[in-house]
Each structure stands twice: as C-alpha cells, then as structure tokens.
Write a structure and sequence with these properties.
It is built from six helices and six strands, in the order ααββααββββαα. It is an alpha+beta fold.
Length: 145
C-alpha cells in the first residue's frame, strides 16, 4: 500500500470503529505525535502496543460516524502523505453531535505507519467534550508520553 492508500484505509477503520486494526497499521516501533497537545496531554505515543492501548477506547470518547471531507496529498517523498479531513460523530458521554477538522502527516515504510503527526485543535476538542479537563481525562488516561 502507498502512504496515501494506507491513510485512506486508516480513516475507514475509524468509521467502522476497528481500533485494533487501526493500531495494527503502525510498525512495531511506530509513533504518533501530537504537536498541538494540550497541557497534561501526551505529545507522543511510541510503539504499536502503546498505540493499541491508547486507541482502544477511542469510540467511547468520540464516536466517529462519518468522514465528511477528506483530501489526501502525496508529498514529493513517496513515503509521506498529508491528509486533511473532517469527521462528524457523537460524544457518547453526552450524546452531543460534533464535527472536527484534522490535518495529519503520515510516514509509511514497508506498508506500515512509522510516524503519524496528528495536528488537531485541543480547543475544538474541549468545546466538544466540555472543557480542557475533559479532554485530558478522555485522552491522557491510557496514553504513554
């Protein structure tokens, strides 16, 4: 799979809530980085086992129901794809609908994600989840810095 194909596949797995398969796209030593991490929120999750643990309860926090918009850009480096996407879903804890935009940069080698930089807005998540403290409670609990 090319980097662009793998990123598209990852988004489909989010919608069907297959977090095990989603995390399984990472290399054994793969990394997720969060350059805009809120205070108290992890800026990095390292290794497939940590990513599996981190993503395990994601659908209980944000129930992604649809990818509303998706644009995948293949960079000049064939191992790197940039994706701009917007998701729509529901916050299970409150039943509140939400829409959030993301930009991610994925580096793929040998058909596995080596590095995934996830550029999302903690303020947008705070609005959806009910405050930055709720963002930290939702995401920081199972993550590894």
């Amino acid at each position: 799979m090319t980097a662009a194909e793998l990123v598209r596949h990852a988004l489909k797995l989010l919608v069907v809530k297959d977090m095990a398969a989603f995390a399984g796209l990472w290399a054994e030593d793969g990394v997720i980085e969060f350059p805009f991490a809120a205070p108290g929120y992890p800026s990095r999750v390292e290794g497939r086992p940590a990513i599996q643990e981190y993503m395990r309860d994601y659908p209980d926090i944000l129930d992604v129901r649809q990818i509303v918009q998706e644009t995948v850009h293949q960079s000049v480096d064939p191992e790197v794809a940039i994706v701009e996407f917007e998701v729509a879903g529901v916050v299970p804890r409150t039943g509140k609908s939400y829409r959030m935009r993301y930009v991610a940069v994925a580096t793929v080698r040998g058909g596995e994600i080596q590095l995934y930089r996830d550029y999302w807005s903690p303020l947008a998540a705070a609005d959806v989840l009910g405050g930055l403290e709720m963002v930290n409670q939702a995401f920081a609990g199972g993550a590894h810095e």
